[in-house]
Design brief:
Layout: H1 14-28, H2 40-47, H3 51-63, E1 67-70, E2 74-77, H4 86-89, E3 100-101, H5 111-125, H6 128-134, H7 144-156, E4 166-169, H8 172-183, E5 189-193, H9 198-206, E6 210-214, E7 216-217, E8 220-221, H10 223-232, E9 237-240, H11 254-267, E10 270-274, H12 288-291, E11 296-301, E12 313-316, H13 319-333, H14 338-348, H15 351-374, E13 388-392, H16 399-408, E14 411-412, E15 414-415, E16 429-433, H17 440-455
Parallel strand pairs: 3-14, 5-6, 5-9, 9-10, 10-11
Antiparallel strand pairs: 1-2, 4-12, 7-8, 11-12, 13-16, 15-16
Helix pairs in contact: 1-3, 2-3, 5-14, 7-14, 8-9, 8-13, 10-11, 15-17
C-alpha cells in the first residue's frame, strides 16, 4: 500500500511546509474528503522528521479546517457535510449494515438510558422552582444541592467524597483540561504512562504542556522510573488512570499507589487521578485522593455510567487549588448548565440508575468472558468488568496492517499509536472496546473476524518510498 507523501518546500519551518502540502493536496483532489492521512509515526519516518513535527503539522492543518482528528482512529480530510466527530460516531448505529465499531470506549447500548432521561425531563418540565433556577445564573462550582446529591451518589458507588470538595464539570474531559490549564503553565512538563488516554494528550497540547512518558509494566506505572524522572526533570503534575489504564487495562498496585503519593510529596507535584472508566468497587484499588488528599485531583463523569451525551462530571479538588479552579471554570463558561445537572441528580436518585449499573456491570463481565473465549489463544489485557480489551499482536504482525484488514471486513479497532507518549515506538497491539458493540451477538461476530485474521494474517504488501 502506497501512502500519501507530501512534497515539502525548502523554505519555512517543516511543520508549516507539511500543513501547506496537506492543504494543496486537498484543493487538488489528491486527498479526498474522508480520506485518512498517514499515521504520524509512519509519515515522520518516511520524511525523516520527528513525530512532533508531523503532530504539529496535523494540528495546524486541523486549525485551518482542512482535516479533523478523531481520537483513537487517526486524522481525516474534513468532509463538507460532517462535523468534527459526527461521521465518526455514525458508525455507532450502522451495525445493521454489517459494521462493527470497537474503536470507541462507550457505555453499552440500553433503551433504559433514553427512557430514564425522558422521565426526569418530564418531571423537570412540571417543577416551576427548578425551571426558574435553570434560567438563572448559578455559582461556578455548581448548585449546592446538586453537589450534595452528586457527592452522595459517588459515595454510594464506593468513591467517598464531601460536597464541599466538588466542582461540577462538563464531563471528565472538561475536568482534565480544567486542571491542566489551572495548575500548569505553558511550557511546563507533566508525566503520564507511556501509553495513556489520548484525551490527556490532546488537552496537554491545547495547554502547551510537554508530556513525558513513564514506562509501565504489568503492575502499572514504574515508580522507580518516575523517581528518576523527578530527579532529572520534575513534572508539575502526574496523570494516572490507576484502576484500569487506558488502553492496557492494567491496575496500579497498592504499593505503587503509596509510592506515588510519597513521590508527589517529595518532589512537590500534583496528581490527576482519572476515574471516569467505571469499575465495580471490588475491582478498584485505594483512591489516590484518599492517600494524598492534599495534592490529588480526581476526575469523575457520568459518561461511562449513565450516558456520554449528558456531559456532566465532577472534579474533586483539595482546598488549595479549589478557588482557582472555580475561577478558571467561570472564565471558560461561567457555570455548567444547571438544567442538565438537575436531570442527572434526579436520574441517579431513582431506581433506573441502580438497575442500569447492575445490568451494565453484568453485561461487561459477559463481554469480557466472551472475548476470552474467542481470542483465548492470545495474551489479553483488561479488567473482568472493564470496557476495553488489550490485544498484543503475534511477533511479525504489524497493527497498521491488521487495522486496515479489519476495516475492510467492517470491523473498526484502534492501534496503540494514539495512546503513545514520547518518542518510543508504539507497541504492536490493538485496543478493542467491547462495550461499544451494539449487542453481544454483534461483538461475537466482530471478535470472530479478529480471530480469523490473527489465525491467517494478511500479507504485508511491498511499499515503495
Amino acid at each position: 500500500m502506497t501512502i500519501w507523501l507530501p512534497s515539502l518546500s525548502s523554505q519555512g519551518t517543516r511543520y508549516r511546509s507539511i500543513a501547506e502540502a496537506i492543504a494543496d493536496a486537498v484543493r487538488r483532489g489528491e486527498l479526498a474528503p474522508g480520506q485518512k492521512l498517514p499515521p504520524q509515526r509512519r509519515l515522520a519516518d518516511r520524511l525523516g522528521v520527528t513525530i512532533g513535527t508531523v503532530t504539529r503539522a496535523y494540528a495546524e492543518a486541523e486549525r485551518q479546517g482542512w482535516v479533523v482528528a478523531r481520537v483513537g482512529s487517526g486524522t481525516y480530510v474534513r468532509e463538507e457535510d460532517a462535523g468534527s466527530s459526527a461521521a465518526f460516531l455514525a458508525g455507532r448505529s450502522d451495525a445493521a449494515a454489517g459494521t462493527f465499531d470497537l474503536s470507541l470506549s462507550l457505555p453499552p447500548p440500553h433503551p433504559l438510558r433514553a427512557q430514564a432521561l425522558g422521565r426526569v425531563l418530564a418531571e423537570i418540565a412540571t417543577d416551576d422552582a427548578v425551571l426558574q433556577r435553570a434560567v438563572e445564573y448559578q455559582s461556578e462550582r455548581g448548585v449546592p444541592a446538586h453537589r450534595e446529591q452528586l457527592a452522595a451518589w459517588m459515595t454510594a458507588l464506593g468513591m467517598p467524597v464531601e460536597a464541599e470538595a466538588l466542582l461540577v464539570t462538563q464531563g471528565g474531559q472538561h475536568g482534565i483540561s480544567l486542571v491542566l490549564q489551572t495548575l500548569a503553565r505553558p511550557g511546563e512538563r507533566i508525566a503520564a504512562d507511556v501509553l495513556t488516554y489520548p484525551g490527556l494528550i490532546g488537552a496537554a497540547r491545547q495547554a502547551h504542556l510537554k508530556v513525558l512518558g513513564v514506562p509501565m509494566d504489568e503492575h502499572g506505572m514504574d515508580m522507580q522510573a518516575l523517581g528518576r524522572l523527578c530527579a532529572q526533570q520534575p513534572p508539575r503534575l502526574v496523570y494516572v488512570t490507576p484502576d484500569q489504564n487506558n488502553p492496557t487495562g492494567r491496575l496500579l498496585g497498592e504499593d505503587r499507589r503509596e509510592q506515588l503519593a510519597q513521590l508527589a510529596r517529595r518532589h512537590d507535584f500534583w496528581i490527576l487521578e482519572d476515574g471516569v472508566q467505571y469499575l465495580p468497587e471490588a475491582e478498584r484499588g485505594t483512591p489516590l485522593y484518599r492517600l494524598a488528599p492534599e495534592r490529588t485531583l480526581f476526575a469523575f463523569s457520568t459518561a461511562k455510567v449513565l450516558a456520554g451525551g449528558l456531559r456532566i462530571g465532577a472534579l474533586v479538588a483539595p482546598p488549595g487549588p479549589r478557588e482557582r479552579l472555580g475561577e478558571a471554570l467561570r472564565a471558560q463558561s461561567w457555570m455548567v448548565p444547571p438544567l442538565m445537572v438537575e436531570a442527572v441528580c434526579r436520574w441517579v436518585s431513582g431506581e433506573e440508575s441502580r438497575t442500569l449499573l447492575t445490568w451494565q456491570t453484568e453485561e461487561l463481565g459477559a463481554r469480557q468472558r466472551l472475548a476470552r473465549e474467542v481470542l483465548g489463544g492470545h495474551p489479553l489485557g483488561g479488567r473482568p468488568h472493564g470496557a476495553n480489551l488489550w490485544l498484543p499482536l503475534p511477533e511479525g504482525l504489524r497493527s497498521a496492517v491488521l487495522v486496515d484488514a479489519l476495516a475492510q471486513r467492517n470491523v473498526r479497532v484502534t492501534s496503540a499509536e494514539p495512546f503513545c507518549v514520547g518518542s518510543e515506538p508504539a507497541p504492536q497491539a490493538l485496543r478493542l472496546c467491547l462495550s461499544a458493540a451494539a449487542s453481544r451477538e454483534a461483538l461475537s461476530q466482530a471478535l470472530e473476524i479478529v480471530a480469523e485474521l490473527l489465525a491467517e494474517p494478511p500479507a504485508v504488501p511491498w511499499q515503495p518510498l
